[in-house]
Batch of 4 targets.
Target 1
Amino acid sequence: MGVSGGYQAARRGPSLCPGGEERALEIVMPLLRKVAAKDSQGNPCVARAGIGGSGHYVKMIHNGIEHGMMSALAEAWQIMNLGLLMSYDEIADEFDRWNENGELRGTFLVAIGADICRQRNDQGRHVLSTVEDKVVQDVDGSEGTGIWSQLEAVRLHVPAPSLTTAHFIRLASAFRAERKHVKEAFGGQFPVQEWNEAKGEKKTVLESLRRAVYAVFLASFVEGINVIDQADQENRWNIDYSAVVQIWRNGCIIKADYIIDMLADIFRKPDADLDLLHNKRVARELHDAFPALKEVVVKGMEHNAIVPSLSATLEFLKYSTNTILPTQFYEAQLDYFGKHMFDLKSEAAGKPETGKHHHEWKLA
């Protein structure tokens, strides 16, 4: 059984994700319903995810989704702090605004972000200002689910860049001494610069930033569910996605009311397409957020903002919707030196299988 909510959930109620045989779970479910977190309607955030080890697996991917969301919010925080020169308290107020209405309403990570920005120590100093920029849980062995999530995405051939790129910055952050050494070798760093041109349009920039963060949050769910779907097909867990959505309604780190409401509507239909990029509602949401995401990434690049998950999500949307990729040239290179074969544009798209054609690009 997967458990989410952190150590504080022991008192307030965790999100519980059990998997297994129905008869066995019927025995323990009354107890699990009592201890689980409750949603706004008083319903317990626990349900049977599927058979076998599905509960553990879904919780593992939950953590991969969590990493994508956390990275995006951290990237937005640094843009506000170093790019827009906002104080911690001003950022807290902005996070409160994001959490009250719109696509980021009722989002756990946004809510605690406001708390983190406001918290002061006994000396009256913001606690956040004393925190080192190191995430070491992947390296010290105390957190393995993020690593496993990325391995599974690659193993199952599922593009999940919002999640994977978030993991890479965690790894880079852990080795702070190494980063200092690289900085010396480069003769300095590429510092985040002030967004001077945004001073007169700060409100507009912040709204674009909110929309950009939402795009990463939603893309993280899309990517994570795609990984779960592929694993489900492989293991025949018969995962109940409506149950998974209920598990994620409260008590877990990826609680996001707007997104969860949308997913609940989608998975209420028994024949729902599990590739959420095919869903018109999800596609419209990501399409409408694309301009804001692009604006933030472009401005971020101009001012050396560190935006791995924001930029990776932008690229994900670009290449997922595009039928003219640079891999046309990539495929030709593979055929040139390795005789890996290729398909013709005149043929049907087909499945991801070895092509039928080879060109002798250079006579031996």
Note: The mean pLDDT is 91.
Target 2
Amino acid sequence: MGLLLQPVTSDDDFKELIECEWTAYETPYNGFKEIYCPTLGTGPNAREESMKECRERQLAEHKGDATSHWFKAVDSDSGQIVGGAQWHVYQENPYVNGMEHIEATWWPEGEGRRFASMGMDQWFGPRGKRMNKPHVLLAICFVHPAHRRRGAGSLLLKWGMQKADELDLDTFIEAARPGIPLYSSHGFREVEEYWIDPKVENPSDEWKQLKEKIPPIPWMFMWRPKQGRYEEGKTVLP
């Protein structure tokens, strides 16, 4: 029973792909999922309806961005999607004017949107400083918990690393802690740890509830230099 790496070429793939993404980010819990793809509401269909909104939004973002490349890891026997990755290939500097503010419009207006927007800026803000050059970025990577330790993660890394070497570009990852060992094994280096931790003065009760639901989220800025070449004391960190 092997795995295949395939590009995501149809809208139909996105339903199974995003279902896999949600399951992966719920096991173990990844707080960023609750900022970027929250489960809103409390009814019996809340998760399904929220997932549908997330799926449609991610598909629209992908279609509207020529730098976006989605790949799926597929079980060769069952045909099941067991993991996915979104790569971006920037052959020009995308942050000439810095990183723009991201408004979390998928949240209803109010404290939730304010909280999520601040979290998005804390996550993506360092891109304007760290990635202000042509580069390849692994924006999203996940593997279904039932199919981990089969090599899916390494398979999903393959395309982007090869593309970066082909174009002679640096490669970046904004890594959640569980993914750091995998990325390190493929030559990515830990550069700096950041936190998603929205704070305001005199927080409302709703803000405090959001802080309890979404505690501070650590993530590691990781980097693989051109062609994977790194010399201690000589290669300059981004």
Note: The radius of gyration is 18 Å.
Target 3
Amino acid sequence: MPILSSSVFDDTGKPYDVSRILTKDYHFDLEAYTKYSKVYLPITYVLAYGVQFAGLSALVTHTICWHGQDIWQQSKKSLAEDARESKAEYQPVNSGVRCAKTTANTHSGRLTTEPDSSASIRGEDVHCRLMHRYEDAPISWYLVTFVAMLTIGIFVVEYYPVYLPWYGLLLALSITAVLFIPVGIVMAITNQHSSLYLICQIICGFVFPGRPVANMVFVTYCYISSAQGIKFSSDLKLGHYMKIPPKLLFKVQIAATLVSSVVQIGVLNWMFTHIPNICTPRAISGFTCPIARVHFNGSILWGVVGPQRFFGNGALYRPLIWAFPIGFIAPILIWLIGRRSAASSSWRKINLPVLFGSLSWIPPATGLNFSVWALVCFLFNSHLRRRAPAWWGKYTMTLSAALDSG
């Protein structure tokens, strides 16, 4: 087997032919699997799964240790603010002057202004005060959107032959809801998205074994809900700084989501029809779909063969389970050292979810991708930042957007 590959292999060293272990209904055929071969992983796959296991457990403990108190305090403040029917009015930023709070009188319909000494406690900045001039998008808008999309999702999994029951969809959304805040905190601090991809595949593999299509659908709902939720929050933050009314921003986001969904499906179908050998090594213009192949291989490993055959007693890859406790304990040790260190200590800057998560892109990423990334980051964010800070500040966003564009 090759050391670095996006494929999985059989016992002869050839790419694994998953069609030989599936029934006509795309379910797992144990007898055919026994006659054919076990699934063998390249060393890069083993490394990627190990660091992803560690990164997932590290995400939980890192968030609790470093940000648990902040989350709890902010949650209480948010609930208290939602309970009050109040709306703040913009006031100039003057030191030593209390902010004003405009309270709606539900009986007379009038607005009354009174001093608000809690503004500094809430940590409101000038952007928050400016945005108080606009009405927030009602929570009912979000609830109606959620219920409508959930209804469509349940219809899809029940009507079409994806072999994922409706409660599997609810389970996928529940996983996203529980881990959304830890993923969002890491994203806000480091601009790195901690993927829930692997844990979704494994959970679905345990709950719904032998169903590769169900596994792919489960992962899509779980992972995409997290990724799109983070992007939606990022857009709300950008709109907050650009002083865009929240109601208008919500409407634009919904419209853009609907349009982009239709356009993407249309483009995808066109590509499958007009690009020869797409998503194969013989595809033209580099349309080999490396990420899609990783997704497909994951459905083989966890949806068809199942986690039990990889991590059960006597299984070849059972030692990978030790990555979970390692990732769980390591952030606690770093936190215990960092909380007793100076504010500028390097211990406070170690972020294990990011360190582990960055390596999870292997495969399809290669050593070349990481070496170029390290070189560009060092030259631009270290060397140029010290030598030409004004130039660096002007073009950092431009370079980042250019590299993201490809």
Note: The longest strand covers residues 99-104.
Target 4
Amino acid sequence: MTFSDFHDRFFPSTNPEASDEVTIWSVTRSMAKREFGLNYLIRFNGGPGCSSLSGFLNENGPFQWQPGTFRPVENPYTWVNLTNMLWVEQPVGVGYTQGVPNITEEIELSQEFAGFYKQFATTFGLENRKVYLTGESYAGYYVPYIADEFIKQEDDVYFNLAGIAINDPILGDSTLAQQVTVVPYLDYWANVFSPNASFTAAIHERADQCNYTSYYNTYLSFPPPPAPFPVLPDPFASDSEYPTCDLFDAVYTAAQA
């Protein structure tokens, strides 16, 4: 993986206390030639396949260009106010990246990114920095896998990982994250959703039939059993118009009624 395969941008912070910090995303390479501090943060969007330009232009970049507007406006809440920011579009095939996509899973992704990052740090003289990783959504996979790869490198010159943070992350498959937990969620917030008695009884019966209730009580309680968690069947594997074990959409539809 070559440095030119990825697309990157850097924005230095205006905060004098951020002189020892930096974060990764996307801006002109000429700006990246400015002197960095001792630390920086790498920011990822999710997807998988979500362009980092989404975060840059609509979330925490120095300006925002919202849908339906004619020009960008300064973002008073940009993270650049607090620290130096660098965003990177990845993996190859996303956004303005170059090259041919050739990975199929997150371990390969982390190795690809580590190869890019070492070349990036060498190009702009960013050796011996502490690095922080953060992201959202599918970055719940990106950040831990890339962090693990950084640690495996055992090289503080290039991969001195100082910390990670993920917000609104995807941490498991959607069946576990949505289908298994939606009925307990509905029960907890019953005063908000106000489901009627017949729907509540029916959705609990379906949760029992789909093995979601026993799975929740066994594997999503503390402490969990030591054995690996079993993988639940795909609730959308049915050929019927409305799969029996798709409880999430059933609750979602009922909540909108």
Note: The chain has nine helices and eight strands.
